[in-house]
Amino acid sequence: QVQLVESGGGLVQPGGSLRLSCAASGSILKINVMGWYRQAPGKQRELVATITNGGSTNYADFAKDRFTISRDIAKNTMFLQMNSLKPEDTAVYLCNALIYTMSQEFRNYWGKGTLVTVSS
Rounded to whole angstroms, how far apart are CA atoms 52 and 50? Predict the structure, then answer.
């Protein structure tokens, strides 16, 4: 079994910052790509950013210049530093990972999400 657990969400004023974390645990041999997605009420889930185990990153246009994704490979943890937050960034932020498990297969996993609310 593999678990992804997000933390760090909360209420922040426009222009503020938050740092999200995602910790992976369980029957993990190796984590390949990790990513953050978000889903706002009434909207489809969308990509925020991804990072490979080599450190290559990819950002959605709205995240460029404001958000920074990073990983601690040794601790199976991923982060998302979010700056200059806007009300339209309000959403549940979900962690995703492609993991090579101890069953010797690649599987895609999702966390349950952490709520980010940007409001004055």
Answer: 7
- The reported pLDDT for the residue numbered 91 is 98
C-alpha–C-alpha distance, residues 105 and 24, integer Å: 16
Minimal CA–CA distance to 57: which of 48, 23, 95? 48
Structure tokens at 104: 């010797």
Q: Is residue 57 classed exposed, middle or buried when 0-12, 13-18 and 19+ CB atoms within 10 A define those classes? A: middle
Distance between CA atoms of residues 64 and 24, nearest Å: 25
CA-atom Rg of the chain in angstroms: 14
Query: What is the spatial distance between Cα 18 and Cα 22, in angstroms, rounded to a whole number?
Result: 13
pLDDT value of residue 94: 98
pLDDT digits 0-9 by tens, 6-43: 999 999 999 999 999 999 999 999 999 999 999 999 99
Number of residues assigned to the chain: 120
The number of beta carbons lying within 10 Å of the beta carbon of residue 51 is: 22
Closest by CA position to 104, among listed 31, 24, 29, 34: 29
